[in-house]
């Protein structure tokens, strides 16, 4: 089975469809993305935009999901940012905070951990008893 993401005019994923391998196979019996795109455009309209995605992340770094963005310059799907302030690492294609997260600390029977606070653009500290 092959997976294809339909994109809107801003390269945002609208939906992901699964089609038969047969519908992506060229005359030489090899999988060909353009064959799958033509198949889908025949079904849903010539003006639709499709990009193949891979359930096991072998194509375009990450399996596309609704709301993901296709970055043509990097040829990857990028998940939505969890926070407006977070920054995309263009090597790993993951979002990260503008300030590194402090390490969790375990002392005796307590753990100090941290959650991102978008309002203050900082990490909030939480201390919890782990008895």
Main attributes of the structure:
131 residues; elongated; mainly beta; 37% strand; 3-stranded antiparallel β-sheet
Describe it.
The protein is built from one helix and ten strands; from the N terminus they run ββαββββββββ. The protein has 131 residues and is mainly β. It has two domains: 2-80, no CATH class; 82-131, no CATH class. It has a three-stranded antiparallel beta sheet with strand order 2-1-3, with helices on one face. The model has no long low-confidence stretch (mean pLDDT 94).
What's the number of domains? 2
Outline the biggest β-sheet.
Answer: 3 strands, antiparallel
How are the strands of the biggest sheet laid out side by side? 2-1-3
Q: From the alpha-carbon coordinates, what is the Rg to the nearest angstrom?
A: 21 Å
Q: Would you list the SSEs in sequence order as H and E?
A: EEHEEEEEEEE
Low-confidence stretches: none
Approximate helicity band? under 10%
Distance between the termini: 49 Å
β-strand number: 10
The rough form would be described as: elongated
Mean pLDDT across every amino acid position: 94
Beta-strand percent range: 35-45%
Helix and strand content put the structural class at mainly beta
Number of helices: 1
Please outline the helices and strands.
Elements: E1 2-7, E2 13-19, H1 33-44, E3 49-53, E4 69-71, E5 76-78, E6 87-89, E7 94-96, E8 105-107, E9 110-117, E10 122-129
Antiparallel strand pairs: 1-2, 1-3, 4-5, 6-7, 8-9, 9-10
